[in-house]
Amino acid sequence: MFNPAQFSPAIQQRRRGMPLTHDQRHPARAAPRIFADSANIRDIEPLYRAGIINGVTTNPTLVKKAGANSWQQAKEMLTEILILLAPNPVSLELTALTPEAMLAQAQELAALGSNAVIKVPVGGYRTVDTNADPLTGLKVIRELWQQRIHTNATLVFNTTQAFWAANAGASCVSPFLGRVADYLAKHDDELGSPGNSLYQTGREARFHNTEYVACGGSRQDSGSRLVQEIVTVFAHYDIRTEVLAASIRNPAQLTEMLLAGADILTVPAAILAGVADHPLTDLGMQAFCADAEVFSR
Q1: Cβ atoms < 10 Å from Cβ of 235
Q2: Domains in the chain: ranges and CATH
Q3: 3-class SS at 141?
Q4: pLDDT tens, residue by residue, 104-143
C-alpha cells in the first residue's frame, strides 16, 4: 500500500534544493507548483487570478475539446494562454511523429512564448509506425535540451522511462498515475497479485515495471506508488528534473501526490474549482452563520 512513512530521507533533501515556488517571504515558498490541466482559458483564468495555479499543461485532446479545429486556431488559443500565464510555464504537446518534424514543430511552439515547455511523448512511436525508431522521443528531448528548449516528457508509466527522459535532458517528467490505476483495475487477473497485468499480455511475459509499483498494494494506489518511486530514485541521484504528477482523478490522489513529494501537480480545472469545498466545512459555515445572527440584531 502507499505508505508515506517509508519515504527516503533523501526526498526532503532534494526538495530543499529545488527552486522556490513563491517569493522568499511566502509561508509556502517551497510548496510544489500546481498546474491546471486544461486548454480552456475560461477555466484557466479564474484559477490563475485566484492564485491557485502557477502553470498549465495542455495536450491535443484538451486543445480540441476547447474548440480548436485547425493548427492555426490551436496556436492562437495556446498563445493566449501563454500570455496570460507568463512567466509561468505552459506545456504544449507535439503532434508530429518523426524527429525532423518534431524538432521543427517544437521550435514553432517555443516561439509562441518564452514560457512554453514542449511536451514530448517518451515512447510509443512504433505503435503508430512499425518502422519508427523507438528512441525517437528521447532523441528529440536530447536535441531540444541542447537547444536550451524546456521539455516535458509525457506518457510516462514506469520509473525507467522517467529516468531515461531525465538522462536525455527533460526539464520535467509526467507519470500518468490515474491511468496506471485505471489500467490495473480493468486488466488485472483478479486471482493474481495487484499489478499482474503490467507483467503479462496473454501468454507473453512482459516486465514493464518494478515490484514496488506492480505488487504489494491495492490497484487504486499503484499510480501514487509510481510517483513515489520516481521521486525516490531522483532523490538518490540528485536528479533535478521535476516530477510532474499527471492524470489526477480526484482530491484523494491530489493529497497522495503531496505526500509522495511530487514537484508539480497538474490537476483538471474541475477538481481545482472545488479544492476549498468539504461537506463538513459546509455544515460548519451553516452553524457559524446561524449563531452569528444574534450579532446582527
Answers
A1: 21
A2: 4-296 (3.20.20.70)
A3: helix
A4: 999 999 999 999 999 999 999 999 999 999 999 999 999 9
Q: What phi, psi does 9 have (nearest 5°)?
A: -60, -20
Quick one: pLDDT at residue 213?
A: 57
User: What is the mean predicted confidence (pLDDT) over 37-61?
Assistant: 96
Identified catalytic residue from 64, 65, 75, 119? 119
CA–CA dist 256, 295 (Å, integer): 41
Say if CB 118 and CB 109 are below 8 A apart: yes
Is the separation of the CB atoms in 94 and 106 below 8 Å? yes
The answer to whether the peptide bond before residue 87 is cis (omega within 30 degrees of 0) is yes
- Whether cis (ω within 30° of 0) applies to the bond prior to 60 is no
Cell of 126: 512504433
What phi and psi, each to the nearest 5 degrees, are found at residue 204? -85, 125
3-state secondary structure of 91: strand
Q: What is the separation, in whole angstroms, between the first and last Cα of the chain?
A: 54
Tell me the CA distances in angstroms from 199 to 164, 220, 233, one per residue in order.
20, 17, 21
d(CA 157, CA 198): 10
Contact between residue 58 and residue 91 where contact means Cβ atoms under 8 Å apart:
yes
Is 119 an annotated catalytic residue? yes
Q: Which residues pair with 266 in a beta bridge?
A: 35
